[in-house]
Structure formats: structure tokens, C-alpha cells
Design brief:
Helix content: 25-40%
Mean pLDDT: 74
Pfam family, one: ATPgrasp_YheCD
Low-confidence stretches: 1-8, 17-21, 42-61, 66-74, 259-286
CATH topology of one domain: Dna Ligase, domain 1
Strand content: 25-35%
Distance between the termini: 34 Å
Number of helices: 9
Structural class: alpha+beta
Protein name: ATP-grasp domain-containing protein
Largest sheet: 12 strands, mixed
CATH superfamily of one domain: ATP-grasp fold, A domain
Organism: Aureoumbra lagunensis
Length: 360
């Protein structure tokens, strides 16, 4: 039985026969269950509208809710400003002055980089990952900067053979210190929690947090790469959840990522329009947008410190058949709480980042 929050019945009634649009087909399954509606992938909406302003980096829409009650009201998600991929995150952390102890040592590289100018510690092993990688693809372990550059240049040479290669931007990679995490069942893991930005304020999801445990003989803890998805409440003392929430709050407030300054186009529903009429469009101000991120944290076995791995501006979601009933209920609870929060309603599963940091 899926866990519900009290606001869902009200939300279902309020949405009624509204159009619900999603960026990720994976989250469609969650929200279809939570709201009892069939969703339309946002990619279809974008292709149909085909407006130049929608051609930008990052997700154009993660979740949009549109309903009619005399006049159309909408809620549109947007990417966090200037954090479209892993390389952007490295630069954003540097520019924001986030303490070095909060993150693994990292540097952004391309095939044109002069590795002799790279200043950093000498690590026994490092992680090399594509800046725009997804689902753990392309992540490898290297033992030196020279080995990393060899791989990057080979990848660039391969990409140069592809059609339209001359129009593609140079591939960016992130070379990162390999952090040995505390283990679960002798396997490495990372933690994930969610943060949202609504009306200019940062919130952290506190009801529960996720644990991604790597497969045997595998160092990649990404869920899409086959890692086992569990909940922090199943494996650890609640005090770790408190530490995690405070750490994420600190990251959010230090990084201060805003929603993009662009304005989004969405459909405007005309109650009196015929089905054959062309759809009308309405401009939605930035204040009508929200942003959501899946934040991945590792617990360093060397000093027991939390460190930021990823700031995913378009977090993925597993299919129902891929996870336990307990984990699926967690996803549905998060989705419904997020929807309540974005509609300007207080929800106890989210806490203001500033309050969490003050409480710690």
C-alpha cells in the first residue's frame, strides 16, 4: 500500500482533469500513482511547441502541473542556474567558495588541457567521468593524470569520427579524487537526499534518505548502473540522517543556486476553445518556477566526513518493478511532498535549509 500524505486527496481534487507534464518518463510512473492521472512527457510538449527559448542546456521541464479553475495556473520546474553538468558543478563550487573539505579534489579536463599545469595532490587512484555522463556510464578508475589524458584524447578522437563532429563542443571530463567510503555488506555506497528551491528559498527533504550500495566487485554506486537502492532508516542510526540533512543545507546555502533567469513557455488552456483550435501559450514568470536536485554524498572511511559527489539537476527515478515496496513508497511520499511544497503549502517532510543549519 503506497504511503500517502493528507494533502494528496486535496491535490487530486484540485488538479482534476488537468494536464500533468513530466520531463522524465521514469517519474511519470510515480506521479501517475500519486495523482491518479496519466502524464504527458514534457519532451512531447517541447517538440510540439518548438520555441527557440526552450533550446537550452539542462532540463526544460522536470514537472509541470497545469489545471483549470476559471483561469489556468501552472507550476514549472527549471534547472538550477549554471549547474547543468558535473563540470559546471566543479566551477560553481569553486566560485562559491565551498570549503575544500566538503568535496573530493576535482579538476575539469578536455583533450586540449595541459596536464603539466594541473596542481593537486598525488592520489593512488582517481575517478574520471564524463561531465555529461548519465547512469554511471563512462566512469573509470585511473592512476595518474597522464593516464586520464590518454583516455580523454582517445575518446575525443573517437568522437571526431562521428557525423556532425565538427559542430559538437569539446568533451569535458571531471578528474576526481577517489574516496573510499564506509561500506555496507562490504560494498561501497553513497547517500542521496533531495533539495528543492521554491520562491527563492532552499528546502531539504528530511523524511528519509536513500542509500545506493554497489554491486559485488563493482565500485560504481549509481542506481541506474545496478546499485541496490535502500533507505537510510533501514541501515543506519537516525543521527546520520540529521548530519546528512544539515550538510546538504550547508551546501545549498553556500552554493546559493537560483533557478535560471529565463522565462518558460507553457500551454494555456482555454475553457471555451474547441479541440481543433490551436493551443495558446502563456508566459510564466520565474517566480512560478521551482528547481529540484538529487544530491549524492559519500561518507569518507578515512575521517568519517561527509563529502559532496554530485548535484543532479535532473534526478532519475527507478521503475516500480526495480525496487522494494518500501523504497517505492518512499519515492511516492517524496513526490507528493514536493508537489505540495511547490504549490506553496507547508509540508513537514521538507525543512528550510536555513533552519536545519541553525538547528545543527
Amino acid at each position: 500500500m503506497t504511503t500517502r500524505v493528507p494533502e494528496i486527496a486535496m491535490l487530486r481534487k484540485r488538479i482534476g482533469s488537468a494536464k500533468v507534464v513530466f520531463h522524465s518518463n521514469a517519474w511519470n510512473e510515480v506521479y501517475s500513482e500519486v495523482l491518479g492521472v496519466v502524464a504527458t512527457p514534457a519532451s512531447e510538449l517541447v517538440r510540439r511547441v518548438a520555441l527557440p527559448c526552450l533550446r537550452k542546456a539542462g532540463p526544460c521541464v522536470w514537472l509541470a502541473v497545469v489545471w483549470s479553475d476559471g483561469r489556468t495556473v501552472a507550476k514549472v520546474s527549471d534547472a538550477y542556474n549554471k549547474i547543468d553538468d558535473k563540470a559546471d558543478l566543479v566551477f560553481a563550487l569553486e566560485n562559491a567558495g565551498v570549503p575544500e573539505s566538503f568535496t573530493p579534489w576535482s579538476v575539469v579536463l578536455t583533450a586540449e588541457s595541459d596536464h603539466t599545469l594541473i596542481k593537486g595532490k598525488n592520489f593512488k587512484s582517481m575517478i574520471l567521468k564524463p561531465a555529461n555522463g548519465y547512469g554511471g556510464e563512462g566512469i573509470i578508475i585511473v592512476n595518474s593524470v597522464v593516464e586520464a589524458m590518454t583516455h580523454i584524447r582517445a575518446s575525443e578522437a573517437l568522437a571526431a569520427e562521428l557525423p556532425f563532429a565538427c559542430e559538437a563542443a569539446p568533451q569535458r571530463f571531471v578528474l576526481q579524487e577517489f574516496i573510499h567510503s564506509i561500506t555496507v555488506d562490504n560494498q561501497p555506497f553513497h547517500l542521496r537526499t533531495y533539495a528543492a528551491r521554491v520562491d527563492g528559498k532552499s528546502y531539504v527533504y528530511i523524511a528519509n534518505h536513500e542509500v545506493r550500495v554497489a554491486k559485488p566487485e563493482n565500485f560504481i554506486t549509481n542506481g541506474l548502473a545496478g546499485a541496490d537502492r535502500r533507505l537510510l532508516s533501514q541501515l543506519f542510526d537516525p543521527s546520520l540522517g540529521d548530519r546528512l540533512a544539515a550538510f546538504v543545507a550547508s551546501i545549498c546555502l553556500t552554493l546559493v543556486p537560483d533557478c535560471n533567469d529565463t522565462r518558460e513557455f507553457i500551454e494555456k488552456v482555454d475553457d471555451h476553445a474547441n479541440e481543433d483550435d490551436e493551443e495558446k501559450l502563456a508566459l510564466v514568470n520565474n517566480e512560478d518556477c521551482f528547481a529540484v536536485a538529487g544530491i549524492d554524498i559519500i561518507l569518507d572511511s578515512e575521517d568519517n566526513m561527509l563529502k559532496l559527489l554530485e548535484f543532479n539537476v535532473n534526478p532519475a527515478c527507478p521503475k516500480k518493478i526495480e525496487v522494494s515496496e518500501l523504497f517505492w513508497n518512499h519515492l511516492c511520499r517524496f513526490a507528493s511532498a514536493l508537489l505540495s511544497l511547490t504549490l506553496h503549502q507547508y509540508h513537514p517532510d521538507f525543512r528550510l535549509a536555513s533552519e536545519l543549519l541553525h538547528a545543527s
